[in-house]
Specification:
globular, alpha/beta, TIM Barrel, single chain, 10 helices, two-stranded parallel ribbon
Length: 294
Amino acid sequence: MPNHASRRKAIKSLVLGSIAVNTLSSFRSENESSAMKPLQLKGNINHSVCHWCYGSIPLEEFCVSVKQLGMPAVDLIGPKGWDTLKKNGLVSSMCNGAELGIPDGWNNTQFHSKLIQNYSDMIPLVAKAGWTNLICFSGNRNGMDDETGMKNCVEGLKKIMSLAEKNKVMIQMELLNSRVDHKDYMCDKSAWGIELVKRVGSPNFKLLYDIYHMQIDEGDIIRNIKTNHQYYGHYHTGGNPGRHEINDTQELYYPAIMKAILETGYKGFVAQEFIPTWPDKIAALKEGVTICDV
């Protein structure tokens, strides 16, 4: 004979459990929907993001997420990825693909022939695609003094600058730290890079100022940006130490840095280049962009 009290208790538990599951599902659905709602961006900063930091996410899927967040661009994409960007209505804010890697750069004349050929081929492709920025690197010292490296960079870069000017493509040499991430890299101080820009003497050659890297090798970020902004054509973010999220887990205060960049009249892109540690990498990106949207 059935126990009616136990049966009523079981039915009550089942109903409550069902309500709880439905409520949780609804909460998760709302949360996920909220996470991917376009950001209400203020329009002062042109936001971008480097795909390599999210390497586990295929470019196509990544572009969809970037677009859903309301961001206009992706950084460090070569020709193979340009169609994917265009398909998703995104801009390649910094192109790559002509360089030989970070260690082998313009400071070494043995690489000039190949670099000149690569950049001569790539510059028209960048222009034809409608993009405007192309990255380059100084290369490592390998025992070379800074003045020799400077002269070698000037000699090589001048051979591609008329083509860059003709195609309205900005060649940008990235400032990287040589203390932690890129041991022996030559363009590791803003002063050296600025002198190089002056000697190259082209309006189409500037520096990619990576905030994370320069915090490690010289600091004084805001003063440097305000004083030398005319030599900087692009910016990258990253939390120090570790190049992770740019929130209060690290030492740089990005809202103030972004305000300093805006005060210079800069109209180019600021690309998030931190490596997410959160399980939800796109949520980490959303937070980073929100922090920088001043």
